[in-house]
Amino acid sequence: MLETNKSLLDTGPISKLQYATIFVCFLMNILDGMDVLVISYCAPAIAKSWAVGPEALGVVFSAGLAGMTLGALLLAPFADQIGRKKMILLSAIIMGTGMYLTAYCTDVTQIVFLRFFSGIGIGSMLASTASLTAEYTPDSTKDFWVSLVISGYPVGAVLSGLVAAQIVPTKGWQMMFQLAGIASFVTIPVIWFLLSESLDFYLKKQPANALSKANAILTKMGRPTLSELPEILEKRVALPVKKLVNSEFRIPTFQLWTALFLAFGSLYFLTSWIPKLAESTGLSLSLAIYAGTVFNVGAFFGIVTQGFFSSRIGLKKTIALFFVLTALLMAIFKVFIGSDFLLFVFGLLGFGIQGGFVGLYAVAARLYPTEFRTMGVGWAIGMGRLGGVIGPAAGGILIGMGLSMASNFMIFAIPTLLAGVVTFLLSSKKIS
């Protein structure tokens, strides 16, 4: 019965309900991008108004990423018990509250705390939306849809960058956090009314009234309804995290964690420090913010391009190619400093590293089954975010030591290259 429904999802046309689910998940990732990147756009203004150095800003960046790690590791897995929709709602509330209150901070310590708090919601949001999208899309195009949904992240970063370039120089960085918080709160009714719970969640976890709720979804999708729920073949174990490192998943899980750790470190070094580093090359505050914006414009096109080619030549080959070429560009970045092509190169960096990075979300969504998919995706993101915590902090130390933009980029080209190699060698029959 479950397999019949699975085949219908794979072969039938995508319904309005599925498109609505994809849209809401895309929208929530736009918010994620806004909430993560707003701190980097505001960092030069905060540093100037409070007279803080790059080391302190590195701690601020890493605090948000530490919160995202905790959210992905500890909060997101509860979506496998309470449902994806409830977790997405909870994440939006946490994000909105943390972002809005940040506008009223008066010192670095307060910002560190609220960035950590906001990060918890951001981390669980990313894992939940990736899982829900994977469970509502056909197998043949799943990689594309998951990548498209995650591409909302750089879209949000671009939008917040465009707004920040106008708001921060004239009305201050506090206004940016107020706007970001309000934007999160506005999406709560959108989630409530437009987002559907995972059909797989109802069929495999079977909470109260699962059959009637599943049939309501199938009816809206124009699919045949069920007369009874499928038999649950496997009982839940006390410590489901062990499932990630059992004999079937152990090696690919550690490979995925390693690739994400390396990719996160490089990505969040770039996203956190590009505006500040660009300003150090002589660009004005507005142009420095635009450097980060161009990076994320490139990221959007890179993610969509990666999703397109992954569905045709395979995830591993596509992701590895994106990372390797990005590492090469980072290694020779010095050539472009001071040239008219500098902003274009920022766009290419975003295209490559974000395209490859988001492909790893699709890998995680494919690797694990529904019963613990959000946990699997959450732990993969969480373990990867440990690299994201280290990257910006290490960048702050290196910049504080006086290393140039080109030297920093050359150093972080190494983990980018290694991420591509590890991904190419990932051993799982589920991943092409």
Shape: globular
Report the top-level CATH class.
Mainly Alpha
Unreliable stretches: 1-5
Instruction: Please give the largest β-sheet.
Output: none
Q: Give the N-terminus to C-terminus distance in angstroms.
A: 27 Å
Predict the CATH topology: Growth Hormone, Chain: A
* Rg over alpha carbons: 21 Å
H/E element string? HHHHHHHHHHHHHHHHH
CATH H level, superfamily name: MFS general substrate transporter like domains
Number of helices: 17
Percent of residues in helices comes to over 70%
Number of strands: 0
Describe this structure as you would to a colleague:
The protein has 432 residues and is mainly α. The chain has one domain: Growth Hormone, Chain: A (Up-down Bundle), CATH 1.20.1250. The protein has helices at 2-11, 16-50, 54-75, 79-82, 84-102, 108-136, 142-150, 152-171, 173-194, 199-205, 210-220, 250-280, 285-313, 315-331, 342-367, 373-400, 405-424. The two termini are 27 Å apart.
Using brief descriptors, characterize the structure shown.
single chain, 432 residues, mainly alpha, Growth Hormone, Chain: A, 78% helix
Task: Describe how the helices and strands are arranged.
Elements: H1 2-11, H2 16-50, H3 54-75, H4 79-82, H5 84-102, H6 108-136, H7 142-150, H8 152-171, H9 173-194, H10 199-205, H11 210-220, H12 250-280, H13 285-313, H14 315-331, H15 342-367, H16 373-400, H17 405-424
Helix pairs in contact: 2-3, 2-6, 2-7, 2-8, 2-9, 2-12, 2-13, 3-6, 3-16, 5-6, 5-9, 6-7, 6-15, 6-16, 7-13, 7-15, 8-9, 8-13, 10-11, 12-13, 12-15, 12-16, 12-17, 13-14, 13-15, 14-15, 14-17, 15-16
